[in-house]
Design brief:
The chain has about 50 residues and is an alpha+beta fold. The chain has a domain of about 35 residues. The protein has one helix and two strands; from the N terminus they run αββ. It starts with 12 loop residues before the first helix and ends in a 7-residue tail after the last strand.
Length: about 50
């Protein structure tokens, strides 16, 4: 089961396929991350906390 490198939350294989670079099994950030967000091909600190 793939997990996020930042928060160790479960991510689906489809999420990894779409959002992780080729050859990487764990994305750097996921929707469950409160402190980081995807910004195009990069990752940046969240400007505001996200509530689920």
């Amino acid at each position: 089961m793939p997990t996020c490198q930042n928060c160790d939350a479960f991510v689906t294989p489809d999420y990894v396929r779409v959002f992780a670079p080729n050859g990487v099994d764990r994305p750097r950030v996921c929707p469950a991350c409160e402190d980081l967000v995807r910004d195009g091909a990069d990752v940046r600190e969240a400007r505001a906390t996200r509530s689920n």
